[in-house]
Write a structure and sequence with these properties.
Bound molecules: guanosine-5'-diphosphate
Strand order of the largest sheet: 1-3-4-2-5-6-7
Largest sheet: 7 strands, mixed
Helix content: 25-40%
Number of helices: 5
Strand content: 15-25%
Order of helices and strands: EEHEEHEHEHEH
Distance between the termini: 25 Å
Radius of gyration: 16 Å
CATH topology: Rossmann fold
CATH class: Alpha Beta
Structural class: alpha/beta
Oligomer: single chain
Number of domains: 1
Number of strands: 7
CATH architecture: 3-Layer(aba) Sandwich
């Protein structure tokens, strides 16, 4: 049966571990630096401009947001990292929320790490990769805002990531809709236990 990606339901926001929920559905998470375009990407995926609130103000209270797609798949919007003006206490809160999330959550098929096409991998993204590996979690990459840079730069970044991690890096743009089909197809392949070959 084909999944209707437009049928999305916001389930809840979790601000601490008591709010986390497990589901009998496959789970895909999205994480990345604040302002990388995570909310915009989730909105693009589900074709809804307001599914995930797009904020122009980074550094808002960190929360884990759950979305159910067509009653059969869960997307999790994880709190962003790397916002410069965040206090030490806020950074610690982020780290413990993430740690508790990965300890609690079942059914995670993969974790998409979002990278700004113009910026590429930053030290914080590499830390996240190391940490996910340590937790035994799978990961893949999504390049955001590809409308803001040129094809050559994107091509180089995709190659760098493939060579370094043997993982896909899917170029997307919330502005032009580029990459939506490719990302959905990648998610559904991973769900079926197939490899999402770049
Ligand atoms: P988040 O903090 O990671 O959830 O990022 P948002 O989705 O709130 O986006 C941060 C800013 O980047 C907003 O001003 C968006 O309009 C902008 N943005 C997000 N995606 C794109 C994109 O694909 N293209 C362009 N040009 N701007 C984008």
């Amino acid at each position: 049966m084909r999944r209707d990606w437009k049928k999305v339901e916001f389930l809840k926001s979790a601000f601490s571990k008591k709010d986390f929920v497990n589901f009998p559905y496959p789970v895909f998470t999205f994480c990345g630096r604040s302002n990388v375009g995570k909310s915009s990407l989730i909105n693009l995926l589900v074709w809804n401009r307001r599914a995930a609130k797009v904020s122009s103000r980074p550094g808002k209270t960190a929360s884990v947001n759950y979305f159910l797609v067509d009653g059969s798949l869960v997307l999790v919007d994880l709190p962003g990292y790397g916002y410069a003006r965040r206090s030490r206490a806020e950074r610690q809160r982020w780290a413990s929320l993430m740690e508790e999330f990965f300890r609690f959550q079942r059914g995670i098929k993969t974790n998409f790490i979002l990278l700004d096409s113009r910026i590429g991998l930053t030290p914080l993204d590499l830390q996240l990769v190391d940490w996910l590996r340590f937790l035994g979690q799978d990961f893949a990459f999504v390049l955001t805002k590809s409308d803001k840079t040129n094809k050559q730069q994107i091509h180089n970044l995709v190659r760098e990531i493939e060579e370094r991690f043997s993982r896909p890096a899917i170029p997307t743009s919330a502005r032009t809709g580029q990459g939506r089909k490719e990302l959905i197809s990648c998610i559904e392949k991973i769900e079926r236990g197939e490899k999402c070959i770049p």
